[in-house]
Amino acid sequence: MPADLHLHSTASDGLLSPSEVVCKAVACGLTALALTDHDTVNGIAEARKAALNTAAELVPGIELNSFAHNAEVHILGYFIDYHDPYLIRELKRLQLDRDERAAAIVKKLNKLGISLSFEQVREIAGQAPVGRPHIAKAMLDAGLVKSVKEAFDSYLALGKPAYVPRSRLTPDKAISIILKAGGVPVLAHPGLLNRDLMIPHLIEKGLLGIEVFYPAHDRDMVERYAAICRRHNLVMTGGSDCHGPGTGYPEVGSAVTPDEELEKLKNLL
Ligand code: AMP
Ligand code: ZN
Ligand code: FE
Ligand code: FE
């Protein structure tokens, strides 16, 4: 009874619409899936509707991108009340920050001789909170780079010439936003983050789980994070982080949450 609790849609930077993500999950035989778009809950209502009358349960989720110790710390939130006015207000703020950041990145690109406008980027993002993947796609569409990867490797990644630091949402604040919205905060892909020393502090701030099962986690990582979960009585989640076909991200269902851990997650509510 697999549950993929880490999926993106067109509501952020995924390629499939929320309903398409649900269809795909059902076709894969998943019994539960969480839509965890970056900094937005805009896809959840559509996904929830699509999941009605299917064998799959839709878990309302989010992935908040925060920053600490010179690293991107992603906090997943499960079973959030996605109508919560406080949550909506905070997300609106994050999206204004994202617009400002994207505009600053475009300005840097312009100084580097790359002719691209903020409007071109905005158009690609549509209703979604704008992110670097949209800028990369705009550069690709304008023939300025040969691939999204080249856009990141040459311009957009941390340390590259058009990089602009993200708004300073801290992991503490991200955890607090999720808790206030009635959700369960979980540290995403700690193996990619590589800042294990931060974990006890995050637990103190209210972290309730760790994404132990993740496609890029090797066996040592899974064992290490499972041990931390057992020691601190945290829930162990798993998910693919699928962004859609051809994005270079893993497929739906390529990492999953064990049944008993999903139960544990629900009992935390
Ligand atoms: P942003 O939220 O605007 O900082 O963009 C972060 C997103 O960009 C991540 O969630 C990934 O989907 C994507 N991303 C980050 N680094 C890379 C990279 N080197 N190559 C391709 N995509 C990337
Ligand atoms: Zn993403
Ligand atoms: Fe992430
Ligand atoms: Fe993700």
Summarize, please.
With 269 residues, the protein is an alpha/beta fold. Helices cover 43% and strands 16% of the residues.
| Form type | globular
β-strand number: 7
Distance between the termini: 21 Å
Tally of helical segments = 11
Over all CA atoms, what is the radius of gyration? Answer: 18 Å
The small-molecule ligands in this entry are: adenosine monophosphate, zinc ion, fe (iii) ion
Q: Report the mean per-residue pLDDT as an integer.
A: 96
Helix % is 40-55%
Strand share of the residues? 15-25%
- Enumerate the strands of the largest sheet in spatial order, edge to edge or round the barrel: 1-2-3-4-5-6-7
Q: Which spans have pLDDT < 50 for at least 5 consecutive residues?
A: none
Largest sheet, strands/sense/barrel: 7 strands, mixed
Structural class: alpha/beta
Topology order in helix (H) and strand (E) letters: EHEHEEHHHHHEHHEHEH
